[in-house]
Write a structure and sequence with these properties.
Strand order of the largest sheet: 1-4
Radius of gyration: 16 Å
Structural class: alpha+beta
Shape: globular
Largest sheet: 2 strands, parallel
Number of helices: 6
Number of strands: 4
């Protein structure tokens, strides 16, 4: 489980033991590689982040919008994307993307994780509008 798990109260242990998320989040690695990954992510034209209460696989559900717990842990508040370390330090380019208007958050409550893909109302609200400029 440590591969996909970030305990905000044990950040250094997460960096040392987790082999997937710190690399994906650009928190560790060789600077040249981190720069390359950030440049690539920053080139995304439009990122739509979809989530809502009812989500049963991603905890907290707000992490679907890159929100997360604070260092107070799982009983503390969940902060918005703009208040996270990933965003504030622009570790992989999320802040750069948002500042140029390329990030859209869409909240759709009441769906379990596996229902997001197959729910026409969610697709109409969150996905179709994002695709209109490409059609």
């Amino acid at each position: 489980m440590m591969t996909y798990y970030l305990d905000p109260t044990h950040y250094q242990e997460y960096l040392a033991r987790c082999i997937f998320l710190p690399v994906l989040n650009n928190e560790v690695g060789v600077e040249a590689e981190k720069t390359r990954k950030k440049k690539n992510f920053s080139a995304v034209q439009h990122l739509v982040l979809i989530g809502g209460s009812g989500e049963d696989a991603i905890d907290p559900w707000q992490s679907a919008h890159f929100g997360f717990y604070t260092d107070k842990g799982f009983d503390g508040p969940v902060v918005a994307m703009e208040e996270t370390k990933l965003y504030k330090e622009d570790l992989f380019g999320l802040k750069s993307l948002a500042e140029r208007g390329a990030v859209e958050k869409c909240r759709f409550d009441g769906l379990r994780h596996v229902q997001f893909r197959d729910t026409p109302a969610m697709l109409e609200k969150c996905v179709i509008p994002a695709l209109k400029s490409y059609l």
